[in-house]
Amino acid sequence: MQQRTIIEKVWDNHVVAERAGTPTLLYIDLHLVHEVTSPQAFSGLRERGIKVRRPDLTIGTTDHSIPTHDRSLPIVDKIAEAQITQFEKNCQDFGIPFYGPKNKNQGIVHVIGPEQGLTQPGMTVVCGDSHTATHGAFGALAFGIGTSQVEHVLATQCLLQSRSLTYEVRVEGTLRPGVGAKDVVLNLISRIGIGGGNGCVFEYTGSAIRALSMEERMTICNMSIEGGARAGLVAPDDTTYQYLAGRPAAPKGADWEKALSLWRKLPTDPGAQYDKTIHIDANTLEPMITFGTNPGMGIGITQMVPDPALIGDPVERDTLGKALKYMDLPAGKSLLGHPVNVVFIGSCTNSRISDLRAAAGVFKGRKVSPNVRVMVVPGSQLVKQQAQAEGLDRIFKDAGADWREAGCSMCIAMNGDQLAPGEYSVSTSNRNFEGRQGKGGRTFLASPLTAAATAVTGVVTDVRTLL
Amino acid sequence: MEKVTTFTSRLAPLAIDNIDTDQIIPARFLKTTSKIGLGDQLFFDWRYDAEGKPKADFLLNKPEGKAAQVLLAGDNFGCGSSREHAPWALTQYGFKAVISTSFADIFKGNSAKNSLLTITIPADAHKALFAALAANPAATVTVDLAQQKLTLPDGSAVTFPVDEFAKQCMLNGVDELGYILQQDDAIQAFEAKRTLSVNTAVAA
């Protein structure tokens, strides 16, 4: 048989039907559903009188529009409350396991899947959310879908899909102190642009990727969509299996051994060809930060903001000029020392325990700058518990940061956690689009280390000066 | 789903690259449980000021923007989130097609499911189209999905790619789910030999 990449193997394992002139009918192993992109899909099922085919392969959680303050209080936003109530009813009516606001395992959909062992190597995973690629860290083919496709999967557990191109992102070398997974992926996107991976699935390979923990791999896979790729994955290895072993939904006993033997066949065959490849030298990376209004507008933290005047293509020049105007930043200057109003540590990109540990390491023994509001939002209730067991919450609170309940929070700013117009944030989230964190808000994307360093100084800071 | 037929329209030009779905419809409007009423929220933060008044200089508040059923945008239109609210907002506003040099994958797929054409044309034709509109804002194009043909203001035509299956769905006004539901035998056969099992209720 021809040598195949892991992307092709997972695809081939899920082909239900193939017919000329029609996209492949692909089976979905795990469907994650949340309150924001599913209501119209459930309405569609009701209109057609269709049941959910496989509620046992589906979970529902509330994360996007729920408040992150005290959960015993009522939800102030009545529209959000109605959406959450409707979602709970939808899960009940259709028999879908529901990880609701008061559940001890509630959290961001892309945090709880891996945490519970639901996400496993070789699976196909979908969710009405573009950051579904997070689950690719386990060697799963995981991608975001629209609400029509949410309805398709609820109804049939299948999707019509066309094969993507394969794109190898090879990261070799060793990351230096102060540089992490977030910096790797921001560097990738700054090089290929936010449409660079359109039509592709990334496979992240190389020694630097192998050396990463599962949580760091999730951070990288999570932002695949920011490079235009619907999915991005890392082939499973012992790091993957160690993370999974013993998790609630992971196979046990003889089933585990059987699963392991299948998972070990997934990695890309030696000599398999990719449609595209890019190489990144981990040794030369520095902490990254974005300056503009899309995640591809990123630079090393010691570099200068680019100058639109030096760009030839008029639309490209105007696009950069418009971004700098929105951000109210001068061209050709460094961001270091730029004041910020808010630091947000959280989101499906960087809200896991290792992210919180990294941030706490910087906060310990320091105080948040009096000019800065700092929100630390754990990705799930279990992450929250773990952080509290380790005393991280005390470090955050002693420093003057706000310690919140789990949810998407200020990453998407639809739950009341948001920037005021004109405010600047350093955010560990994944998008710096205009208004993403609140109308008129201005976002610098960076790692948890850079965010924490900025929180204690009040200005954009190179964390390496504090280590 | 609406049947797509051949039509001629003016164009609304938005010469910005990488227009993301947060601009097309900001996330705060996603708390709805309905698909209806999203046209008013299209490009909301570009279209209205802090008091909610229309910004006079924004395209959709000008006569040429209101008269168009085709949006002409910069590269990589529709990047960002998977929200299908983006094509819902565009179609409810009255757009039938978006022209660009490239589209984000999820947006393109979502659009096809809502009879919104995503027309990819070569960079030179794209540039020429912006120039033609600068010279004559009332210039029109004709969109023929069956022939996959876009007729430009100067009478020349370019062809554009469309997934064959999506094309048939749009021409006939039928959605994909009906087709997938007919594949039940194949789905059952696949499930019978599927070995992987996962218990999603384990911690609910």
Low-confidence region ranges of chain B: none
Radius of gyration of chain A, whole Å? 21 Å
Helix/strand/pairing category of chain B: alpha/beta
Q: Show the largest interface.
A: A-B, 92 and 62 residues
Helix content of chain B: 25-40%
For this structure, the CATH topology of chain B is Aconitase, domain 4
**Beta-sheet strand percentage of chain B?**
15-25%
The CATH H-level homologous superfamily of the largest domain in chain A: Aconitase, domain 3
Q: What is the end-to-end distance of chain B?
A: 36 Å
The CATH topology of the largest domain in chain A corresponds to Aconitase, domain 3
Biggest pleated-sheet summary of chain B: 7 strands, mixed
Query: What proportion of the residues of chain A form beta strands (DSSP E)?
Result: 15-25%
CATH architectural category of chain B:
Alpha-Beta Barrel
Number of domains of chain B: 1
What attributes does this structure have?
heterodimer, A: alpha/beta, Aconitase, domain 3, Aconitase, Domain 2, five-stranded parallel beta sheet, 19 strands, B: 204 residues, alpha/beta, Aconitase, domain 4, seven-stranded mixed beta sheet, globular
Give a verbal description of the structure:
- The complex is a heterodimer of chains A (467) and B (204).
- Chain A is of the alpha/beta class and 467 residues long.
- Chain A has three domains: 6-161, Aconitase, domain 3 (2-Layer Sandwich); 165-240 and 259-284, Aconitase, Domain 2 (3-Layer(aba) Sandwich), CATH 3.40.1060.10; 288-465, 2-Layer Sandwich (Aconitase, domain 3), CATH 3.30.499.
- Chain A has 15 helices and 19 strands.
- Chain A has helices at residues 6-12, 39-48, 78-94, 109-115, 147-156, 181-192, 207-210, 214-222, 238-244, 253-263, 314-327, 353-363, 381-389, 392-399, 448-457; strands spanning 15-17, 24-27, 30-34, 58-61, 98-99, 124-127, 141-144, 158-161, 165-172, 200-205, 231-233, 276-281, 288-290, 298-300, 342-345, 373-376, 402-403, 424-427, 442-445.
- In chain A, the strands form five sheets. In chain A, strands 5-4-3-6-7 form a five-stranded parallel β-sheet. Chain A has a five-stranded parallel β-sheet with strand order 17-16-15-18-19, covered by helices on one side.
- The longest helix of chain A has 17 residues, at 78-94.
- By secondary structure, chain B is of the alpha/beta class.
- Chain B has a single domain, classed as Aconitase, domain 4 (Alpha-Beta Barrel), CATH 3.20.19.
- In chain B, 33% of the residues lie in helices and 16% in strands.
- Chain B is built from nine helices and seven strands.
- In chain B, strands 4-3-2-1-5-6-7 form a seven-stranded mixed β-sheet.
- Chain B starts with 6 loop residues before the first strand and ends in an 11-residue tail after the last helix.
- The mean pLDDT of chain B is 95.
- Chains A and B meet through helix 2, helix 3, strand 5, helix 5 and strand 8 of A and helix 5, helix 8 and helix 9 of B.
